[in-house]
């Protein structure tokens, strides 16, 4: 369900087709009380619990997943990383797959990493992926060092016999907002070789919103839309892509015997800035054999010294058409956008987990982006490696101090935030559509 009888935003500032998912609203409070990877009081146990639930954290620190993936299969859950004491919650040596519906996840860090595995040896986890999930919001999270994608909407390509059934059977109605998706591992343990990727929006995934995210140091897929995908991109900042920034590709070998579906992309108010790793590219490039209907307005694309880059390009010689639309396509109603000239400062200030209480890796990444530094990496050790696993910090969760409808603090201050500190609320901007 998306919203239900008393539809309201999941939290102040929630946007997109998934904005009114209830998550775990109205459910029981489940407390994470240990940094152990599993067992009583763990995040894994809270995710596996049944029924509507709001997951809060009475511990802060590092959860070592030991090269495993947390899989969310029970719906109606809010994962409130903002409730954790400083320094917040960071997952290392693993990732998260969302294989259900009505999920709200905020203020969580994931650091996947090679973890010493041999080149092309098979460790290939995403940092975050929805797998045929729907009505999902992932907001103010930080995803680094994935072996596959950092942040994706995936699932089966064809479920059923019709395009409507295909779309219902894969990821749909998903918002990714104010996240960091960066430093995808290039030549690491993925069996296919080079695999530094930002976001994959899989074939036939629809009603996907990418809103005010930071993509940094990913070789490709910033994002990649596969065949028939329908995506809105607004106010994202893409820094130092390698071979591709935004791309579309319907591959004939993957669609053999099926009727090609035209992809849809609206890109408004985004910024692409090249860096040390950036090869010649365009803001939007098309490959494969399928057509793309697109609307683009007020986007900026420049190289590392500020010279303009082309807005459109191709990386295949097939007959795929790029069909321009004068008005937005696949665009959520009333979405607020800010001018592209304001995007870099806005996103660098606000994106990622706990921007009032950033960890060392997010701080390093954001400052490197601001200064035009950094590059695509092959191993997390190149940028200092995993954060140290230390004793948990602890803070008892007090339900009376929080608005349990939105999981916002009644005081206006999050754990670890000082009075007068950074305000992470988003300006309205101008509404489009």
The Rg value, from CA coordinates, equals 20 Å
Instruction: Determine the number of helices (DSSP H or I, runs of at least 4 residues).
Output: 4
Are there runs of 5+ residues with pLDDT below 50, and where? Answer: 1-5
Mean pLDDT figure: 95
What's the total number of strands? 32
Helical fraction equals: under 10%
Q: What is the 3D form?
A: globular
Terminal CA distance: 24 Å
Strand content: 25-35%
Largest sheet: 12 strands, mixed
Structural class: mainly beta
How does the SSE layout of this entry go?
Blueprint: E1 28-32, H1 43-48, E2 53-57, E3 59-72, E4 77-80, E5 89-98, E6 101-106, E7 109-111, E8 128-131, E9 134-139, E10 142-144, E11 151-154, H2 163-168, E12 172-177, E13 180-182, E14 200-201, E15 206-211, E16 214-216, E17 224-226, E18 230-234, E19 237-239, E20 246-250, E21 263-268, E22 271-273, E23 284-288, E24 292-297, E25 300-302, E26 312-314, E27 322-324, E28 335-337, H3 340-350, H4 360-371, E29 393-394, E30 402-403, E31 408-409, E32 430-432
Parallel strand pairs: 1-2, 2-4, 3-5, 4-6, 5-7, 5-8, 6-9, 7-10, 8-11, 9-12, 10-13, 12-15, 13-16, 14-17, 15-18, 16-19, 17-20, 18-21, 19-22, 20-23, 21-24, 22-25, 23-26, 24-27
Antiparallel strand pairs: 3-29, 28-32, 30-31
